[in-house]
Amino acid sequence: MRVDITDFVAGYPGSGAVSMFDADFRVVAVLVYREGFAVDWVIRPDPNVSPIAAELDDSDHRFISRLSEALRPEATEERLFARRLWTLIDAATVTDDAGTRYRPGSRGWESVRGGTAGRFTFAPAPPAAAAHVSLQFGGRSIPTQLSQVK
What's the CATH number of domain 8-145, 2.30.29, 2.60.40, 3.30.530, 1.10.10? Predict the structure, then answer.
């Protein structure tokens, strides 16, 4: 589902790092818009997602088959890493202390120096009654306070 986030309302810094998958996951910021909100995150180093079940699809196999024999093992591992990470990212949800039901929006990620960074979007925007939102990610709950930084 698409969440249009165009009218910025407020931004809140994320919390400290949470250890998971042999890496440190951190919510960088929660950015609230009139229509919804975004959770920006980073995980360093790249997480060990090998325990997560994933399979390559036909497009992966076609891509890999076009590579030279020497490149195929590395390409296969990279594709499996991406599929496993996507499984983890796709399962992310959010809650708050006001009991709001949120719809997931877009989610994406990219490689950054030393790890992976991404963004989740959700709708609606957190209500004024919510003191925090908590990202449910990788079997952990990572809260972010929704209060002004002094």
Answer: 2.60.40
